[in-house]
Amino acid sequence: MNAADTTWVLASTALVLLMTPGLALFYGGMVSTRNVLSTLMHSFFAMGIITVVWIVVGYSLAFGPGNSFIGDFSMVGLKGVTAEPNGVLALVDGKLEPAITNIPHVTFMGFQMMFAIITPALISGAFAERLKFRAYAVFIVLWSILIYAPLAHWVWHPHGWVAQDGGLDFAGGLVVHASSGVSALIFALVIGKRKRPAPPHNLPMVLTGAGMLWFGWFGFNAGSALAADGLAATALVNTHVAAAGAMLSWLLAETLKHGKATALGAASGLVAGLVVITPCAGFVSPMSSLWIGLIGGVVCFGGVLLKGKLGYDDSLDAFGVHGIGGIVGGLLLGVFADTAWNEGGANGLLLGDSALFVANLKATVIGVAFAALGTFIILKILDATIGLRVSEEVEEEGLDQHLHGERAYSESSGGSHVEA
Q: Global pTM?
């Protein structure tokens, strides 16, 4: 066990948790004053309920030995998850041996828990301002168990079929972003459009949230090295470079399209860059990261424009940024990957090897289809039982007062666009 590695992963765990309040502010500033608290609650509630789900059963299903598709129940209630370096059992020469030995098992479990928390919270950007809170509560529990845990096992457990097939995902391009983004698209299509969409009520809140996400993402990506070493340093630098590149390319595209570079565009662009570099961070060079960010910013900007052309209401652009960004990042990894930066990775198309691109394309298609179909089934069951959408009266008057009995602002205060 290595004390420096343990310290870095513990710090990264805290950084990743900070991303969820950052997401709450990022999303909360983009809704109307009538729905600020309900939007913030989506992220904060996930911090509570998914923590419980993860320690009871989620971690065991994601990282238990199991088979190539799903873990087992051997670690239910964190059975066997101790302060010893015995994390994630893998079959070695016919025997189950620890695959992670440099940090305490409980540290690895806690780090992965923060990923499990923020992933379903990302989906909330698609249904903001119109979903029943109890439907949200049941949905994220089911989604975490039935969709997230299997995907995490496929990709990050040594015996997962994606890992065995040669697919790579350093910190969650498929597991976190593509899965949540595509699920968000399905949610938006199933629940329907808002009755009274409003412009963002507080752009300073959005920018503050984006800044917290940028800061926390260093733990998200560089912490995924699970060591305080050169790989973590590379992932951290790549994360920052891609965010900068994507922000600039998004703003350029926005200026060419609309004639102005906006604060909302800057926030959305940097988040797009963070998303697109997530699967690549530990496998590419800083210069490749710049290209990945530049490409990702433009592509995700186009992805956000899709909702206007196709007519669905992805309220806060969860699909346009996270879904498309996660997919594009996974595929670009198959182009730019370079073993000179990580001997445990693979080379991409630019170095004459197509195997990684093919493996990631296969994993992306199957993973996206799995998340989309699973989400659709969960939503249809919930809609037929407890219902998904609030009444027109509640939606008109705002979810904060009706669902939570509170208001974000008094009659005399508010943000950029205060409504009566």
A: 0.95
